[in-house]
Amino acid sequence: GGGSALPVSLSTMVRKAKKEEPKKVAKKAADPLFPARPRNFRIGGDIRPSGRDLGRFVKWPRYVRLQRQKQVLMQRLSVPPAVNQFSHAMSKDKATALFKLLAKYRPEAPADKKARLLAAAEAAKDGKEVDSKGPACAIKFGLKHVTALVEEKKAKLVIIASDVDPIELVVWLPALCRKMDVPYCIVKNKSRLGALVYQKNATALCLTSVNKADEAELRNLEENCMENFNNARMTWLKSGAPVMGMKTQMRLKKRQIQIEKELEKRNQA
């Protein structure tokens, strides 16, 4: 009979795949001008450094940019005296005393006025006589109203806001007060004046009368305003000197130092 076939091992049947050598990738030479700086986004890696103010890099809203640019422009230009006088506001201690006095003479609140008129109307309906007048001594506000009171010389003290925009609204008012010999003062913050008369802002306020108890205090304020505003000629005759930016200031300083050094050399020679 036929001989039995020898068992063939699997290893001889399966062909061994040749190992492919990995392709060599040519490494790019590092550019010395632009070295690679890989970022690390793990914890504590490429994040905002704490304590650094990045306000310079924020894109601020348009109105913020405009008011900042305007402020810088006002510093860079030679400001005319009529406008420059609004930068000399009343000192803080005097302004505090003034606002304390003005707080006593706030006009009637809208709700109180409504209630008073309603009560007067009901009394009139019942045939009763009621004296429904508002407070006698109160702050007068509104530019036209204040102007009329100054022209009639009824105003005892005029208070003007320093930050009215556009400034042309009140730029002539100090000159009118000086002509009419009415004491005036310029105080910071139109919103602070507005708060006294239940408005958002107020350009100018004035007092026409006060109670007897406050007459001495009003007289003191009038004298102070006459001295520091009406009669202080330099505040309303002097132009605002332009202030250069920090870069320009440093450049001019370096130039001045260089000039001084050259002069020293010439003197020594």
Strand content: 5-15%
The averaged pLDDT comes out at: 87
Number of E strands:
4
Count of helical stretches? 11
Describe the 3D structure.
The chain has 269 residues and is mainly alpha-helical. The protein has helices at residues 10-13, 62-76, 81-84, 92-104, 110-125, 143-151, 173-180, 190-196, 215-230, 233-237, 246-268, and strands at 140-141, 157-161, 184-187, 204-207.
Brief rundown of the structure:
With 269 residues, the protein is mainly alpha-helical.
Write the layout of secondary structure elements.
Layout: H1 10-13, H2 62-76, H3 81-84, H4 92-104, H5 110-125, E1 140-141, H6 143-151, E2 157-161, H7 173-180, E3 184-187, H8 190-196, E4 204-207, H9 215-230, H10 233-237, H11 246-268
Question: Which features characterize this protein?
Answer:
269 residues, mainly alpha, four-stranded mixed sheet, 11 helices, flat
